[in-house]
Amino acid sequence: MSIVGLLTFASFNELRAQEAANAEATATEQVEATDSTVPEEVVAAEEAPEQVSETKSFHQVLKEKYIEGGAGWMTPVLLCLILGMALVIERVLYLNMATTNIKKLLGKIEENVKAGNYDAAKEVCRNTRGPVASIFYQGLDRIDSGLDNVEKAVVSYGGVQMARLESNMTWIALFIALAPSFGFLGTVIGMVGAFDAIEAAGDISPTVVAGGMKVALLTTVFGLIVAIILQIFYNYLVTKIESLVAQMEDGSISFMDILVKNQK
Q1: How far apart are CA 65 and CA 17, in angstroms?
Q2: Residue 94 and residue 37: Cα distance in Å, rounded?
Q3: pLDDT by residue (tens digit) across 197-230?
Q4: What is the SS3 assignment for 191-252?
Q5: Residue 214: exposure state from Cβ atoms within 10 A (0-12, 13-18, ≥19)
Q6: For residue 241, how many other CB atoms are within 10 A of its CB?
Q7: pTM here?
Q8: What is the C-alpha separation between 18 and 199, in angstroms, rounded?
Q9: Residue ranges of the domains in the chain?
């Protein structure tokens, strides 16, 4: 019995020892798992600011592309944009100020002409801005010379005012043509440089070819963007001028009808 008891006690101690060993192993795995997750979170937290810092603004990207394209060819394209937009802004302001309420102006002129007060009619035209009022003033200023001379003055001064409306439009058209031309020229010269690099390397390396073509094509991209921007404003200005010219012609006809109807 004593021998059986010793064997039973020994097996019980072995079981206790195995359970303790298993418990320690489980605790160790949990600690290791916990330790392994902590560095990942720390690394993720440390990498997050780096990812945020890598985000670049549009201004920074545009500046980098400008430098990559080469200042020698990107600068003329930029000048075309600056000068073209300056002329566009000047034309927009001028044409908006040239817009006149013709019906209201003709109503005031007809009222004074019916009363025979041509000086008051001229004063109304003088105080009204726009090419139409200037044309009417030139006609009224020659009312004593006869209606034929009035009509000639209206037609002649109408041509002068039309030329003023179209002023600087040819320069805008020039910058529209120059911007992509400078871009294409920069691309061609850049391609020549890329082929020179290939010839010097003695091998068609994708890195050499891709780098040279990227720099060369950037000038074309910027040139086309500038041309598109200026072309949109150019078409707007042309439409505005056509509208003003139509108003001038229609107003001139109505003006002559008023003078003929009230001729004494």
Answers
A1: 71
A2: 69
A3: 777 766 666 666 666 676 678 888 899 999 999 9
A4: HHHHHHHHHHHCCCCHHHHHHHHHHHHHHHHHHHHHHHHHHHHHHHHHHHHHHHHHHHHHHH
A5: middle
A6: 17
A7: 0.69
A8: 76
A9: 1-55, 61-261
